[in-house]
Amino acid sequence: MGQHVRHLEKQLGTLLIRQPRRMELTPAGHALLAYCDEMEQADMRLRLRMSEGDKTKGELSLDHPDGRAMATRLLSRCFPGEPGIRNIPVRGFVNQVGLILEPVARGMGFTVLPQYARQAFAQHSEIKVMTLERDVVDSLWMISRAEWPLSARARYAMEYLKQQLGDR
After folding, report:
1. What DSSP element (H or E) covers 163?
2. What is the pLDDT of residues 89-99, one digit of tens each?
3. Measured in whole angstroms, how far is the alpha carbon of residue 22 from the centre of its chain?
């Protein structure tokens, strides 16, 4: 494994910060990991498209990074005392909000997403939306690693968000 990492670092620069008893990804390491995740998702989408002729072939993936936490908060408001989403089996994972609603529109499951994701979905009339008595609101935290300089894009985004949101 170390030989493979060294070969990648020779091509891409330092990918890991090596410390006694642990390793940590650098920004370049995170970029490579994100690229690999994107390639894996693209491969899965291709395989699914190639198997469209047989509805019993392919994979179905529904979830996103904050999905479990959002679903548990949301469902606990509708069904107090229930354990939330953790007792429902998850059979996949999608990290792209734009890909989640297509299988839901086909009746293959459900999801919990921010309202903007449903509004942006082209077939929003195919999605049933459950409304609650009160909104579920999350805090937006701007956090960065102290030892990593922010890119110009990240600095711009932070300033833009501060201007738009103020000190809420």
Report:
1. helix 152-165
2. 666 656 666 77
3. 25
